[in-house]
Design goal:
Helix content is about 55%, strand content about 5%. With about 350 residues, the chain is α+β, with helices and mostly antiparallel strands. The termini are far apart. The chain binds calcium ion.
Amino acid sequence: MRTARLAAVKCLLALLILVTSLQALAQDSQLPFEDWLAIVIAEAREQGIREDIIQQALVPVTPIPQVISNDRSQAEFTETFEQYLEKRVTQWRIDTGRARLAQHRELLEQVGAHYGVEPRFIVAFWGIETNYGNFTGGTDVIRALVTLAYDPRRADYFRRELFSALQILNEGHITHADMKGSWAGAMGQSQFMPSSFVKYAQDFDGDGRRDIWTTPADVFASIAQYLKAAEWRDDQTWGREVQLPADYQARAGEWAQPPAQHSCSVVRHHTQMLPLAQWQQIGVRRIDGSDLPTNDFTASIIQPDGPEGRAFLTYQNFRAILRYNCANNYALSIGHLADRLAGD
Ligand SMILES: [Ca+2]
């Protein structure tokens, strides 16, 4: 027994040494920036990126040291749901969101009807992501992505994003000088990564450019299209806060989630999607103690702060919100802000 354990420990140690030396090798083989950039430029030419864009955006580019230190220090410090909500769903965001809903009502209703997403949700994303377009980030997106693509930590991901960004410039949706965003490359009023822009951004005003930086019609439609592609259901809301029965935790194994096919990892900790009627039978009630709605929906229960915290019954749309940003607290904030915008 002891020999077997010793052998296992030795094997593990050998594996660790191997992994560490492979990492060191990867670090060592890192090309000087100029050589790496020359390869990127050659690839951009091969992909048909126009020479004027290459000359403007790539040839003079240098890494931004601050981007690397931001990337390294992305503290995943744990805020409770209450703390998170208090910071995101502020009175300012509610008041401003209501004013924006009124200001853009006609356009938002057109977009909402076209894509099948209620305006209050579109405005909630707009508000949480960029304070209704007030804060979109001032970093040169190409420069930020070059920095992160050169850095070995997530090089493959950011290199793909860099080439998507070059494609966007090549198609003329925005000029290099105006292609601004967050230090991690999220762009415009909807904070789309370039690959999301390529897939989901919309030209709703029909001027030939998908402009998520300055055209409200394109911003709203792009958010709505993203949700539509994530299987948004316009006949449902996001979910609601609920009361759980006294024996809920003791029985929790009965509705634990089987491995889910969802790109967002937090979904693995949600319960199964069960019909509302079944949750009603289990003893789940609305927060005021009344019966659950009788709609033929499925929903899962989440408790963002664990068994002692508040509980929420969440519908398919909650999972669509998680595709925008894979974090329970984020998705709950979108839902709560959308409810407040509607006057709840
Ligand atoms: Ca447009």
